[in-house]
Amino acid sequence: MSEQALRETMVMLGASLFERGYATGGAGNLSARLPDGTLIATPTGSCLGRLTPESLSKVSMDGEHLAGDRPSKEVAFHLALYRNNPQCLAVVHLHCTHLTALSCLDGLDPANVIRPFTPYYVMRVGSLPLIPYYKPGDERIAQELGHRAQDAGAFLLANHGPVVMGKNLVEAVNNMEELEETARLALLLQGQSIRYLSEPEVAELRSLKP
Known about the structure:
With 210 residues, this protein is an alpha+beta fold. It has helices at 3-19, 75-84, 97-103, 119-124, 139-147, 169-188, 199-206; strands spanning 29-33, 39-41, 57-59, 65-67, 90-93, 130-131, 154-157, 161-166.
């Protein structure tokens, strides 16, 4: 995908996320890696519903601001994922309602916040490790994600929200939407007797992962 096409795709997907309530105000950020290794990312404080192609930030893999508006401070943890997982070509970080609510619960399993109970959660996301709470912009978020970049395709920042990777921006957004729906169902089912997927069922689904 050309740089211009990627910029236009990011604007379109940002608007779609905003219009459907996955993003509010200036919260959340998107990024995607170009073939030359540079990133296109949403600018600091920008609303995903009001992006323009020319205002999107261009950033080197070293974090140097190359063009466009100033990038979000959270691009640091995007870069940590790109540097430590060659399969990662796009990152979506949102403060979507159900995943953020889930991130605020006490007693979550740090290895996998959502125990598998639907097929597409397994196939699209796989597992959801928990990253301990650090204030937004804290360099330890990038350090934690960098260390664990190959452990999973998504992470939940405690008391903050999700971070999801993909092989392209469309896939990353689709994975985020599947994860948010899974969190919504998990909260709806709290207190109910849930039939979780068995280990053999999960193993079979992992072999079908798109």
